[in-house]
Design brief:
The complex is a heterodimer of chains A (443) and B (283). Chain A is built from 10 helices and 20 strands. Chain A is α/β, with parallel strands linked by helices. Chain B has 13 helices and 1 strand. Classes of the chains: A alpha/beta (443), B mainly alpha (283).
């Protein structure tokens, strides 16, 4: 396969902080070194880009990036916020230049970075299609030929003669994506912008990118935090971490290793169907499941979805199930584990008498079900707990979600005393204590 | 598919590497930007393009009252209204070009940050859209000129008016040159923006707009070099000479302004070219 994009030793340095007299000093020094024929002194003191650690002013937003993208390939780029994904796309679309290294591309690049690429708010949708098309390098007649197709794809026909400033952000993205996708670029670069659109449009956009790459052999670079769309669209993916390429390879293994590094997912107090699907393991009937997990939420007693609790309020683990076929014996196990994956506590649904009665006397018919497990008050300590979950249709299916969610508990104290220095334990329950006077040693 | 088009992105490109061919291939965009600048200005207004006419009329009136009536500055024997309007029409074009191009990077950071196209397209589009505006104001000036001419005032338009395209070229070049130079310098440090705000005003007084050059030479004596060294002076004077028959015209002065413009434009393009590569990081 011939390559379309070749990235060699690309690095990009940024300076943090404000621009002012201090940066002017650095600029003078840089110019002075240049006159002396030396290298840029600041390129040496760059640090790894870690968002949450303090350090010097110069950081490498990208460091020594090397990879190639082939013709007709759809490459997914994933990583945490600040990993350098967007910076990389900016370099590719020539918005700014790399500090070192080189990027070679073959053919026209259309990029869609952020929402509303180059729309002028005062102009109408129609005028903006022409303007935007021209900005992306299209000729006027090309735009005219594709105009109806673009409007049709965007689904904004009614608004086409209204100034773009009256558009919703979703309509903005629809129009912008429609223009970029119909430009017939050899390389299409799409940053996390589709998230603004609704599900229908996202599916449409992903379908379009698919047909563009498979049908016309064009190259697509796609950044997203939505693992489901990455998986459905891309053949290969790279995982970025702190400005470097952490891993690259086949999309399934990269997505899995991203999810296992897990730092994004487990902090969320609510997981949707797609995310759960990507994380679940065990005995799964993919083609004809008897049930699926639609959502898992952590709630407090007033049904608010949270990931922070006090030890004196209950933690509810709520599981939304959709049952397709009758289930005779549904069993659920919840485990609390610590950061080293040691099991702290296990609770089974069948431990509860009422639940057991229900299961034994009723067959679970197709429909939607809510299941709730309550971790009662006054047991947990001041700690971050992780959850594992097993959902079992006995002898047929067994879904395992391992260390898939977390929540933090703040110890509330008993009797108005917090005694925090004694909270360094897995549990801090309120036990019975007694004090009895045995004998009075009277003088 | 033009797979043959290979492009290499590296940290620095050659300073003199100005890709005119690329700019030409984006000419459709240039046209659209001109349209955008021109159309977007009077959207959501009632008077619309009338504003292009109202502004010079009122400025002329104020100048006539203040400089003509109050300060009694002579106007080379020309009708005051024509004299001021002539200067204002020209000066407006230059000043608008300068003001608008000088914040190209800062004002358009939002487009520049998302998509690539030859950055020079934007300042060039400003020069052209202002040309349209100048056209309207120039027509207004012609209406006044014809009126005064028919009513027997002493104005002598002559064949020098065929120099108008060249004068416009000079003004456009000067405005563009100063503008892109300043816009390049302001991407990181905004100091020059503050300089520009009152700088353009001061610049106007160093140009024979509210006074004739002859008066400056006579009254200012050894200080009159400020006006003479000003590259806009010969442009304004030639314009006055061509349409009103009064003022100073010399090929030498035109040559001086041309040379000045070429050097300025060269320096401006050079800095612009250097800055456009990475300005998104610092703007």
């Amino acid at each position: 396969m011939s390559w379309m994009i070749k990235i060699e030793n690309v690095s990009k340095m940024y300076r943090l902080g404000l621009v002012g007299a201090g940066t002017f000093q650095d600029d003078l020094k840089r110019t002075w070194y240049k006159w002396l024929g030396k290298d840029d002194p600041f390129l040496k003191i760059g640090e790894e880009n870690k968002r949450d650690v303090s350090g010097g002013d110069y950081i490498w937003a990208l460091k020594d990036i090397n990879f190639e993208v082939g013709k007709g390939e759809v490459l997914g780029i994933i990583g945490k916020n600040g990993a350098g994904k967007s910076t990389l796309l900016k370099l590719l679309s020539k918005v700014t230049k790399p500090s070192t290294g080189s990027i070679t591309t073959k053919g026209r690049i259309a990029s869609l970075l952020e929402v509303g690429t180059g729309f002028h708010p005062e102009l109408t949708g129609r005028e903006n299609i022409f303007l935007n098309g021209a900005i992306l390098g299209m000729k006027k007649y090309e735009i005219r030929n594709k105009f109806d197709e673009i409007v049709d794809f965007s689904g904004c026909e009614r608004y086409i003669d209204t100034p773009v400033k009256r558009y919703s952000s979703g309509m903005h993205v629809r129009l912008a994506f429609a223009v970029a996708a119909h430009l017939d670029p050899e390389i299409l670069v799409v940053d996390e912008v589709l998230a603004v659109g609704d599900a229908e449009f996202q599916a449409k956009a992903i379908g379009k990118m698919k047909s563009v790459s498979q049908g016309d052999g064009r190259t697509v670079l796609f950044v997203s935090h939505n693992m489901a769309s990455i998986k459905s669209l891309c053949s290969r993916a790279v995982l970025m971490k702190n400005g470097t390429i952490h891993e690259s390879g086949d999309v399934d293994s990269i997505v899995n290793s991203y999810l296992n590094s897990n730092l994004n997912i487990t902090d969320a107090p609510s997981l949707d169907r797609e995310t759960i699907k990507l994380m679940q393991e065990g005995v799964i009937n993919k083609s004809n499941p008897s049930f699926e997990i639609e959502k898992i939420e952590l709630q407090n007693s007033s049904a608010r979805v949270l990931s922070n609790f006090y030890s004196n309020e209950p933690v509810f683990i709520k599981i939304y199930l959709k049952v397709f076929r009758g289930i005779s014996n549904l069993r659920i196990a919840v485990q609390l584990i610590d950061e080293n994956e040691s099991n702290l506590l296990t609770s089974l649904s069948n431990d509860d008498k009422e639940y057991l009665n229900y299961i034994q006397n009723n067959k679970i018919e197709p429909g939607h079900y809510d299941l709730k497990c309550e971790i009662p008050v006054n047991i947990l300590s001041q700690k971050k707990y992780y959850l594992s979950l097993d959902v079992i249709n006995v002898k047929t299916e067994h879904i395992i979600l391992k260390k898939f969610m977390s929540f933090e508990v703040k110890f509330a104290g008993y009797n108005g005393l917090s005694a925090e220095n004694f909270s360094n334990a897995y549990f801090r329950p309120q036990y019975n204590w007694t004090i009895d006077k045995i004998k009075d040693d009277a003088k | 598919m033009n797979e043959g088009v290979k492009e290499v992105i590296t940290p620095k490109k050659n300073l003199l590497d100005i890709n005119l061919k690329e700019i030409w291939s984006y000419r459709d965009l240039l046209v659209l930007f001109v349209r955008r600048d021109f159309v977007a200005v009077y959207k959501q207004t009632i008077l619309g393009p009338m504003w292009f006419v109202i502004q010079p009329i009122f400025t002329t009136l104020i100048f006539t009252l203040i400089f003509g009536k109050l300060a009694s500055i002579p106007t080379d024997g020309l009708p005051q209204i024509l004299f001021y309007m002539c200067g204002i029409t020209c000066w407006n074009y230059f000043a608008e070009c300068l003001n608008k191009t000088s914040n190209t990077f800062v004002a358009n950071a939002n487009i520049f940050g998302k998509v690539y196209f030859p950055r020079l397209i934007l300042p060039i589009s400003i020069i052209i859209s202002n040309l349209l505006k100048f056209g309207i104001q120039f027509l207004l000036f012609l209406v006044f000129l014809v009126y005064f001419y028919w009513n027997g005032y002493n104005v002598q338009p002559n064949y020098h008016m065929f120099l108008l395209p060249y004068l416009l070229f000079l003004m456009a070049g000067l405005g563009l040159g100063f503008g892109i130079l300043i816009s390049s310098l302001t991407t990181k440090y905004r100091d020059f923006q503050f300089l520009l705000i009152f700088g353009v005003q001061l610049f106007m007084y160093a140009t024979p707009i509210v006074y004739p050059l002859s008066l400056a030479k006579e009254k200012l004596g050894s200080y009159s070099w400020v006006t003479l060294a000003n590259p806009m002076t010969s442009v304004i004077e030639t314009f006055k000479f061509a349409f009103l028959g009064r003022g100073e015209f010399s090929w030498f002065n035109i040559g001086y302004s041309t040379l000045f413009m070429l050097i300025l434009l060269f320096l401006g393009t050079l800095t612009f070219n250097k800055v456009e590569q990475t300005f998104m990081d610092t703007v």
